[in-house]
């Protein structure tokens, strides 16, 4: 576990995405229709030729009925009760400037999880749907400023502020700067 080579994580993630599609008996075309992601992009992600973006993973999580943490926990090497900071899995979406650290020990059967998010100044991530409808989230800004848009309402969060929400539709996370933002995200399955 721990901070691993990005290629190693992408390879395990790609293999798991291919397994999920195969478990359902879907072709790449069927998955493309359900997710709104092109067949070629899906194929390249499954073969770990590309590192999937946060938005792409969110769409796939929606189709497969998983949170991103649940999906990423499925590619973990082992499950533990305690995960030291140096051993927590870090995933980076280079395209958007998003770094995601899985703080909670991974376990597919639990309903709650804790994630640390970091966005570089100017980073903007839009999710067109929640991975699981009705997902409960608590966004607690630790450093910097984060603008979170939910149901067309923008919430400005500064260090120390916490936003609780249920996610039913599109959301957007934007770091207006001038500094990067670091936040804790508590996620609870409905």
Biggest sheet strand line-up: 1-2-3-10-5-8
Low-confidence stretches: none
- Give average pLDDT, whole number: 89
What would the principal axes of the Cα set say about the shape? Answer: globular
**What class would the helix/strand composition place it in?**
alpha+beta
Number of helices: 5
Write up what this structure looks like.
The chain is of the alpha+beta class. Helices cover 27% and strands 32% of the residues. Helix 2 (28-35) crosses helix 3 (39-46). The longest helix has 19 residues, at 6-24. The radius of gyration is 16 Å and the shape is globular. 31% of the residues are buried.
Relevant terms:
190 residues; alpha+beta; six-stranded antiparallel sheet; 5 helices; 27% helix
Task: Explain briefly what this protein structure is.
27% of the residues lie in helices and 32% in strands. The chain has 190 residues and is α+β, with helices and mostly antiparallel strands.
Can you lay out the helices and strands and say which pair or pack?
Layout: H1 6-24, H2 28-35, H3 39-46, H4 54-64, H5 68-73, E1 90-93, E2 98-102, E3 112-119, E4 124-127, E5 135-143, E6 145-150, E7 153-158, E8 162-167, E9 171-174, E10 181-188
Antiparallel strand pairs: 1-2, 2-3, 3-10, 4-9, 5-8, 5-10, 6-7, 6-9
């Amino acid at each position: 576990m721990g901070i691993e080579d990005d290629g190693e994580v992408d390879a395990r993630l790609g293999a798991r995405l291919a397994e999920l599609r195969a478990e359902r008996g879907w072709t790449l075309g069927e998955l493309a229709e359900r997710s709104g992601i092109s067949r070629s992009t899906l194929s390249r992600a499954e073969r770990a030729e590309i590192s999937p973006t946060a938005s792409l993973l969110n769409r796939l999580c929606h189709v497969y009925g998983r949170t991103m943490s649940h999906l990423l926990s499925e590619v973990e090497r082992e499950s533990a009760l305690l995960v030291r900071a140096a051993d927590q899995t870090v995933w980076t979406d280079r395209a958007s400037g998003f770094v995601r650290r899985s703080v909670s020990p991974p376990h597919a059967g639990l309903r709650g999880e804790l994630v640390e998010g970091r966005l570089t100044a100017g980073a903007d991530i839009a999710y067109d749907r929640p991975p699981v409808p009705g997902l409960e989230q608590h966004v607690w800004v630790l450093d910097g400023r984060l603008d979170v848009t939910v149901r067309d309402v923008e919430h400005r969060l500064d260090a120390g502020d916490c936003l609780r929400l249920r996610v039913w539709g599109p959301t957007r996370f934007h770091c207006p700067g001038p500094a990067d933002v670091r936040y804790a995200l508590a996620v609870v399955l409905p």
